[in-house]
Amino acid sequence: MRDAGKGVTTIDGYIAGCPAAVQPTLRKLRDVIRAAAPGAGERIAYRMPTFTCDGVLVHFAAFGGHVGFYPTPSGIEHFRDRLAGYVVGKGSIQFPLDRPIPYALVRDIVRFRVAENRARAGSKPPARRAAKTVRKGTTPRSGKRAAPRRRS
């Protein structure tokens, strides 16, 4: 399944490229994420299904024996106690395919990430257009060196 995301441009295409046995799990995971983040954007990034809302929320991907779920390091740290029993990395969780996926936990992590991204987006000052600086000895438009001035 390493190449499941190769060349696909939609999450539907990604899921369709996975083995039939794992497709229902991926569809359910997608539905849970959608319900927890209404209006979130969907795209393929890093060859994985990706959900966005004021920035990246989560990614997921199918592998041979597990589904990888990527909620960023903050999503892992906040739910560290509920993730006991799963293989966890800095920003990843492995949900084995031979055990039920903890969809309630996925829902809670996604909701946490939505709130986190919205808080971060709300705390950013409005974007201002930076004043164009002109280096000494350059022309304002091109930024190229100006011709030396002749002294009279």
Please provide a written account of the structure.
With 152 residues, the chain is an alpha+beta fold. It has one domain: Aspartate Aminotransferase, domain 1. The chain is built from four helices and six strands; from the N terminus they run ααββββαββα. It is elongated, with a radius of gyration of 23 Å.
- Rg (C-alpha, Å): 23 Å
Along the chain, the helix and strand elements come as HHEEEEHEEH
Poorly predicted regions: none
CATH class (first level) name? Alpha Beta
Portion in helices: 25-40%
**Oligomeric form:** single chain
The count of strands amounts to: 6
Strand order of the largest sheet: 1-2-3-4-6-5
- Return the average pLDDT rounded to an integer: 88
Give the key terms.
6 strands; 152 residues; alpha+beta; 4 helices; elongated; Aspartate Aminotransferase, domain 1
Summarize the topology:
Blueprint: H1 11-16, H2 23-36, E1 41-45, E2 48-52, E3 56-62, E4 66-70, H3 72-78, E5 87-88, E6 93-96, H4 103-123
Antiparallel strand pairs: 1-2, 2-3, 3-4, 4-6, 5-6
Short description:
This protein has helices at 11-16, 23-36, 72-78, 103-123; strands at 41-45, 48-52, 56-62, 66-70, 87-88, 93-96. By secondary structure, the chain is of the alpha+beta class.
